[in-house]
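User:
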Amino acid sequence: MKYALIGCGRIATNHVTAVLNNGLEFAAVCDVEPRQMEALLEKHGLEKEASILRYTDYRKMVEEVKPELVGIATESGAHAKIALFCIDHGVNCIIEKPIAMSMEDADEIVRRSEEKGVKVSACHQNRFNIAVQETRKALEAGRFGRLSHGSIHVRWNRNKNYYDQAPWRGRWASDGGALMNQCIHGIDLLRWMFGDEVEEVYGQTRRQFHDYLEAEDVGMAVVKFRNGAIATVEGTTNVYPQNLEETLYLFGEKGTVKIGGKSTNNIDVWDFSDEGAQDDANKHLKEATSNVYGNGHTSLYADVIDAVTHDRKPYVDAAAGRNALELVLAIYKSQKEGVPVKLPLKDFGSTDMAGEFDV
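Assistant: Predicted structure:
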């Protein structure tokens, strides 16, 4: 399957690793900064591969190379326009989070991909973590019973050096803040585990320590689900001195699970009323990862390749990306308006938060 990568920044190395692990035909790479392209290829020992074409214009690349699958790993604010261009040209897409920066764009990606029969996957790779998969199996088997409540905590550190690496970070038009960039993976897991159907969100966000950003560095929210469960969200880049944890809790009438680690990669608590010997392996399960992005990109890519080959929906489809974005934007809107926000959310985007923390 012919593949092309658009965007060669911080996360792109995970995409290249997934491409190589899955044996895709790596046909082209694109970035507005040629130096970033070469640095990425060199990191993977691909700098001398003449078969990998280099482009600075993704439109020209798509039209000339005609890839079957693209990975979109640019700044967040460009995701939607690139994805829609690729969809219109019949190219299947893996879109880094967030899938878009506004509900209008996210809904259009879902609509147009379905209309044109193009496979689109939102890159929420943590769904493939072993701890997450084991928890999902227990949930689908009904082992939790009725869910009571849960929470996601993303307690990370991002300092000025991180934000200085790319001028688009922390800007409403191109990135958003801690909830949109760092916490959205956890928000995706929370919404997915609790049945996806959210009734109402009340949130508060602040810019506490990163006064050189436009967006928030901490956000908290209470989420009311249609099935009666409630949950809390906490996302921040203010933890001193380094990343602390990304932790997901699920509390049910017959089961309790705490997924911990720095990126929801360990099982810290696994208790069920119907436990047997098969549960022993999940108690204190740990999945080694080299960074907070985890190991899921390779599995996500494998799933999308299979989805294209067998004409089915990806495991993490465009609607999943849309739903995660909706919950983030609902928290933003609640902060802006000072009241709970009902879902579904329409006609709201990150740029509607412009000036929120200006004095």
